[in-house]
């Protein structure tokens, strides 16, 4: 090898020449094909036996609006119950205490292992098992009066959700480095305080995307509560089409509302993610 | 006659089949800087972790400031303390970890104030003033509002030292505080530790920085296979070791 002060020849200077834009004709072709297929589907539906005037008329009908409000109320409350149960059960599952561990594992096994619709029906029909409920000597009531469709749906959806959420929370807590827990202990924190102040805030960052997923699932799962007479949007749409026989039109109305709600939730989730990303390198600039 | 701040007597610890500590006994005196050296797996870190009870010993006893750690004697038997009592005992020691373990979702200042405010229940205003003073001491005044991810390794470790000092411990434990640092950042952490040693803090330092040990340590302890093989003044142990295995270790490290 020679110690050459000059650069070797045969390698021209390309720094002034631009890289040409390519025409992706295959992508254009594929896009055109998809547009044609979508147009054909739209035309089929337009020509099909759907009275679109019914769709637009019922889209903002009072009963439907009440239904979507009930859907959202139930989704939010049941998810809140699910998250509370999920956090508690995840902490129990990760505790060194074998009794707490077994209780948590048993809960998850039971409520993940049976269909949601079956659990809803069981809660709703609890009066068949216990005609009266209460605290002996203090307060009693007939179970049919207490176990309204609202309460049965809330318990059924929330407790079932808790079983799934606990696994999401457990994954989030396990994703936090063990050194974080040791550092918290080293400054004198007990287990619960370390979880609340140090571990859970860091776990939140990891669990928000799957929890967003779970919440979207919950919005749609509330439709199962129609079988126990809870007046959510699908139940109300069904009641209308039992009367006027416009089945497809009202199902489309309900579908539009579900799509709208889920579309609004996605940007909300991104806001939350940003809130919990404090201190992570990907957000700091 | 002063009493040792830490008295370790016949302490053993096994992880499954692996005997990490074998019948270790040693005293650490108030104001003393003790450096623990030895090959990896020799038990230095385990000994440190036993003192602030991140690891529980199998047998023997550790006394800190005259108080038996982790257990109490009752009718000729030893009973484990509750988690709350152990947490209270930990307040007497400050721990600095090899991997810093700063809380990533809190700023440098919040990392320091977290313990005094949340655990000791002191007022945030008072603690914040002390935290700013501690940041000045580790020369990070301008980084109070930075998150750990915005700091270099050396800066993170200095915040970690300030976080431990904020609890006003009587003993500082350093577990290989410079091993995870880029070579050019080691000096800034060692100089903070040197300043701390000069201020009279009792320190136990697991380290591979023999230069630091020679300069700062009052005593150097060489550990080998879970036991203390040799201990004495830094100049003696590092300069003219008695044991063949100490000689071999020092020859390999230098």
UniProtKB/TrEMBL annotation, chain A:
Subcellular locations according to the entry: Cell inner membrane; Cell membrane
An example Gene Ontology biological process: amino acid transport
Keywords from the named record: Amino-acid transport, Cell membrane, Membrane, Transmembrane, Transmembrane helix, Transport
Keyword Cell membrane found: yes
GO-annotated molecular function: transmembrane transporter activity
Record CDD domains: TM_PBP2
Domain of life: Bacteria
GO CC terms, sorted: ATP-binding cassette (ABC) transporter complex
Membrane association type: Multi-pass membrane protein
Transmembrane portions of the chain: 28-46, 67-92, 116-139, 146-164, 250-272
ABC transmembrane type-1 domain: residues covered: 68-269
NCBIfam families: HEQRo_perm_3TM
UniProt family annotation: Belongs to the binding-protein-dependent transport system permease family. HisMQ subfamily.
Stated role: Part of the ABC transporter complex GltIJKL involved in glutamate and aspartate uptake. Probably responsible for the translocation of the substrate across the membrane.
Complex and partners: The complex is composed of two ATP-binding proteins (GltL), two transmembrane proteins (GltJ and GltK) and a solute-binding protein (GltI).
Protein name (Swiss-Prot/TrEMBL): Glutamate/aspartate import permease protein GltK
């Amino acid at each position: 090898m020679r110690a050459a002060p000059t650069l070797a020849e045969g390698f021209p200077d390309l720094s002034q020449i631009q890289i040409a834009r390519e025409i992706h004709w295959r992508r254009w072709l594929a896009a055109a094909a998809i547009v044609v297929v979508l147009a054909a589907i739209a035309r089929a539906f337009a020509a099909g036996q759907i009275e679109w005037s019914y769709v637009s008329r019922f889209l903002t009908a009072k009963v439907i609006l009440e239904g979507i409000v009930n859907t959202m109320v139930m989704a939010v409350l049941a998810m809140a119950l699910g998250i509370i149960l999920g956090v508690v059960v995840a902490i129990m599952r990760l505790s060194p205490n074998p009794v707490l561990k077994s209780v948590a594992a048993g809960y998850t096994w039971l409520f993940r292992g049976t269909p949601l619709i079956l659990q809803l029906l069981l809660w709703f029909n609890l009066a068949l098992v216990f005609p009266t409920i209460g605290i002996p000597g203090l307060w009693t009531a007939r179970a049919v009066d207490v176990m309204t469709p609202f309460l049965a749906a809330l318990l059924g959806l929330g407790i079932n959700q808790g079983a799934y959420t606990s696994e999401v929370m457990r994954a989030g807590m396990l994703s936090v480095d063990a050194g974080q827990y040791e550092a918290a202990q080293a400054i004198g924190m007990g287990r619960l305080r370390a979880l609340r102040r140090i571990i859970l805030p860091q776990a939140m960052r990891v669990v928000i995307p799957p929890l967003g997923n779970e919440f979207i699932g919950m919005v749609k799962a509330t439709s199962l509560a129609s079988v126990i007479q809870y007046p959510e949007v699908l139940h109300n749409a069904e009641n209308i089409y039992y009367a006027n026989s416009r089945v497809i039109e009202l199902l489309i109305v309900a579908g539009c509302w579900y799509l709208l709600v889920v579309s609004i939730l996605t940007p909300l989730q991104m806001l939350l993610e940003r809130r919990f990303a404090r201190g992570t390198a990907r957000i700091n600039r | 006659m002063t009493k040792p701040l830490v008295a370790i007597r016949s302490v053993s610890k096994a992880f499954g089949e692996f005997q990490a500590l074998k019948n270790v006994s040693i005293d650490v005196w108030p104001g003393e800087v003790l450096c623990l050296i030895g090959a990896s797996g020799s038990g230095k870190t385990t000994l440190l972790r036993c003192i602030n009870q991140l690891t529980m010993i199998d047998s023997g006893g550790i006394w800190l400031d005259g108080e038996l750690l982790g257990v109490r004697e009752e009718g000729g038997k030893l009973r484990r303390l509750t988690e709350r009592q152990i947490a209270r005992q930990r307040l007497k020691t400050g721990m600095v970890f090899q991997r810093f373990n700063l809380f990533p979702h809190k700023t440098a200042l919040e990392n320091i104030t977290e313990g005094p405010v949340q655990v000791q229940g002191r007022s945030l205003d008072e603690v914040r003033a002390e935290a700013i003073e501690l940041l000045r001491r580790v020369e990070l005044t301008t980084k109070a509002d930075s998150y750990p991810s915005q700091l270099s390794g050396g800066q993170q470790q200095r915040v970690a030292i300030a976080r431990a000092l904020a609890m006003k411990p009587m003993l500082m434990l350093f577990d290989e505080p410079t091993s995870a640092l880029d070579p050019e950042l080691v000096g800034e952490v060692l100089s903070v530790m040197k300043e701390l040693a000069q201020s009279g803090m009792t320190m136990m330092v697991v380290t591979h920085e023999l230069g630091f040990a020679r300069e700062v340590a009052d005593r150097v302890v060489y550990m080998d296979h879970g036991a203390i093989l040799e201990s004495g003044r830094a100049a003696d142990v590092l300069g003219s070791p008695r044991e063949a295995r100490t000689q071999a270790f020092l020859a390999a490290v230098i």
